[in-house]
Amino acid sequence: MKLGKVEFCHFLQIIALFLCLSGMNLTELSRSRSKPYFQSGRSRTKRSWVWNQFFVLEEYMGTDPLYVGKLHSDVDKGDGSIKYILSGEGASSIFIIDENTGDIHATKRLDREEQAYYTLRAQALDRLTNKPVEPESEFVIKIQDINDNEPKFLDGPYTAGVPEMSPVGTSVVQVTATDADDPTYGNSARVVYSILQGQPYFSVEPKTGIIKTALPNMDREAKDQYLLVIQAKDMVGQNGGLSGTTSVTVTLTDVNDNPPRFPRRSYQYNVPESLPVASVVARLKAVDADVGLNAEMEYKIVDGDGLGVFKVLVDKETQEGIIMIQKELDYESKASYTLRIEAANKQVDPRFLSLGPFSDMTTVKIIVEDVDEPPVFTSRLYSMVVSEAAKVGTIIGTVAAHDPDASNSPVRYSIDRNTDLERYFNIDANSGVITTAKPLDRETNAVHNITVLAMESQNPSQIGRGYVAITILDINDNAPEFAMDYETTVCENAELGKVIQRISAIDKDDPPSGHQFSFSLAGEAANNHNFTLQDNKVLVLLIVTMRRRKKEPLVFDEERDIRENIVRYDDEGGGEEDTEAFDMAALRNLNIIRDTKTRRDVTPEIQFLSRPSFKSIPDNVIFREFIWERLKEADVDPCAPPYDSLQTYAFEGNGSVAESLSSLDSISSNSEQNYDYLSDWGPRFKRLADMYGTGPENLYS
């Protein structure tokens, strides 16, 4: 007769109830004279009852309250004069007591895993007086465990990995199950492990739950993942024990146990000869069943006639070998290439070297296809020369180009006029002879860089380009010129032989041996014996050669204002009020006509170095002429020091619509302008108000 789950539970409860009833003498109230009871304020008396532990089976499934035990007092004569009461944990809610008999029952299903014991207090009272006839005492009701909890894998399901080709017994992962039953009572919490799914590849240790490999040479490339079902059963695995299961997903991780292999022993690719350098010719891949780092490749060309024409790189994403052009292809010179390419693993595991070399070879044949190419010049750059005196139509040189294709189509020539905008040159369309078309000037353009176009007669769209540099040779067709306009001055007491000017010349021409100039004094200057010219073939020196004459009074005009001849040194001026040293009107206005003062120690011939008077000078050079006039005055000034000196002038120009802004003009003018407003500008303008104001009210106290 088989029992179902419900019947089996009832069967266990009946057995437990039997055990409890058979031990009733342990749970009933018993008389004990050996333990005294103390009560403060009274004489010592012996204790009439003691409470022992009660046990009750968990998970009672019956409909009636479960009998726990019985309380009884020696005072109780069975006449109903004594009543029993309970207090403490679960009193009245879980545990009830018959106040007449002292029988204790459990009214609810108890679960040891929720609470293992309850502490209660019991007391016997006189029913009439409701006073205790026995002192209150404490007792414990313990919940006795049954195997009502199956083992559970709290961390499941599990995932783990183990390298492929691992030896038998390699540890994979440990699983752990827990059982909520009492581990100190019976075998309810003693768990053993077993494998329900995953054999014969894996095994599990019964006591520890450690999963290990059970077969050698498990190949990831054949099967890379396994699903295991592990069972944990309590009661030490015996019949009637409860069990729980979990799943374990085991992945075989890759090792480099597969060498790369080309799917084919040879490949052939066709490429046009016009394919530019760095273009991709082909992609090829050696197959490697491994993954990740174990499948990384290196490709290289190890042999063949295209070592310098092609190269192979690795695509790190796809692990393909990329064949690329590194030198221009030419069908006419070589129509095919053969390459021997090797693929090898970058990472090699020495444990698997016995499986063979971890590399492979293949042959790649590359066929170069002919395309219609533009004409090619015999030289990338032609250098030609022609004299700038060459007449129109002079032959300068010849360029040549040919069709590199097998058809060898005739070529016609022309000049790219974007490089010869002035059309200085022509080219014969058939022969490639370049001639002059216009007069040339080296000084305008010394080198002409032109582009010559060569066009196929049969296919005008195919155009080649050649580059010609035409250098213009120089002839002596330009007169020399002075490097600058020279204005030379000399002191009256210059020593004999003193160099007063260096003169040089330039020439736009460019003779091979350099310029050779000769200098001489021209015209009436050649008759001036005060100076000589020393020709150094490159530059010339103008030298004072006259001797000094006896010094005589220097100035004929005795009425000249002495103030104009005084030069003060190391003296700070007095501002606008200082009018003692200079003629302010002369400094202010350039248009005053001056009489030229003649010095006795300068001969009239020197006057060719003088500048024209101001009356003939245009206004746009008025400042420069002002300086030259003052310089000339200083040169003929008899009171000037015999050494270089610095003289300062204040000149603002003339012709301004607003006239001069300087207050110097106010000294000698009768301006009717009223300057009384200066007194309103504050103390800083007091001085000006004093100078230009008209009344005493403009003065500040």
Automatic annotation (TrEMBL):
<dbReference type="GO" id="GO:0007043">
    <property type="term" value="P:cell-cell junction assembly"/>
</dbReference>
<keyword id="KW-0472">Membrane</keyword>
<keyword id="KW-0677">Repeat</keyword>
<keyword id="KW-1133">Transmembrane helix</keyword>
<dbReference type="GO" id="GO:0007156">
    <property type="term" value="P:homophilic cell adhesion via plasma membrane adhesion molecules"/>
</dbReference>
<dbReference type="GO" id="GO:0005509">
    <property type="term" value="F:calcium ion binding"/>
</dbReference>
<dbReference type="GO" id="GO:0016339">
    <property type="term" value="P:calcium-dependent cell-cell adhesion via plasma membrane cell adhesion molecules"/>
</dbReference>
<dbReference type="GO" id="GO:0005912">
    <property type="term" value="C:adherens junction"/>
</dbReference>
<dbReference type="Pfam" id="PF00028">
    <property type="entry name" value="Cadherin"/>
</dbReference>
<dbReference type="InterPro" id="IPR039808">
    <property type="entry name" value="Cadherin"/>
</dbReference>
<dbReference type="InterPro" id="IPR000233">
    <property type="entry name" value="Cadherin_Y-type_LIR"/>
</dbReference>
<dbReference type="Pfam" id="PF01049">
    <property type="entry name" value="CADH_Y-type_LIR"/>
</dbReference>
<protein>
    <submittedName>
        <fullName>Cadherin-7 isoform X2</fullName>
    </submittedName>
</protein>
<dbReference type="InterPro" id="IPR002126">
    <property type="entry name" value="Cadherin-like_dom"/>
</dbReference>
<feature type="domain" description="Cadherin">
    <location>
        <begin position="73"/>
        <end position="153"/>
    </location>
</feature>
<keyword id="KW-1003">Cell membrane</keyword>
<keyword id="KW-0479">Metal-binding</keyword>
<feature type="domain" description="Cadherin">
    <location>
        <begin position="482"/>
        <end position="614"/>
    </location>
</feature>
<feature type="domain" description="Cadherin">
    <location>
        <begin position="263"/>
        <end position="377"/>
    </location>
</feature>
<dbReference type="GO" id="GO:0044331">
    <property type="term" value="P:cell-cell adhesion mediated by cadherin"/>
</dbReference>
<keyword id="KW-0106">Calcium</keyword>
<keyword id="KW-0732">Signal</keyword>
<dbReference type="GO" id="GO:0000902">
    <property type="term" value="P:cell morphogenesis"/>
</dbReference>
<feature type="domain" description="Cadherin">
    <location>
        <begin position="154"/>
        <end position="262"/>
    </location>
</feature>
<feature type="domain" description="Cadherin">
    <location>
        <begin position="378"/>
        <end position="482"/>
    </location>
</feature>
<dbReference type="InterPro" id="IPR027397">
    <property type="entry name" value="Catenin-bd_sf"/>
</dbReference>
<keyword id="KW-0812">Transmembrane</keyword>
<dbReference type="GO" id="GO:0016342">
    <property type="term" value="C:catenin complex"/>
</dbReference>
<dbReference type="InterPro" id="IPR020894">
    <property type="entry name" value="Cadherin_CS"/>
</dbReference>
<dbReference type="GO" id="GO:0034332">
    <property type="term" value="P:adherens junction organization"/>
</dbReference>
<dbReference type="GO" id="GO:0045296">
    <property type="term" value="F:cadherin binding"/>
</dbReference>
<dbReference type="GO" id="GO:0008013">
    <property type="term" value="F:beta-catenin binding"/>
</dbReference>
<dbReference type="InterPro" id="IPR015919">
    <property type="entry name" value="Cadherin-like_sf"/>
</dbReference>
<comment type="function">
    <text>Cadherins are calcium-dependent cell adhesion proteins.</text>
</comment>
<dbReference type="GO" id="GO:0016477">
    <property type="term" value="P:cell migration"/>
</dbReference>
<keyword id="KW-0130">Cell adhesion</keyword>
<keyword id="KW-0325">Glycoprotein</keyword>
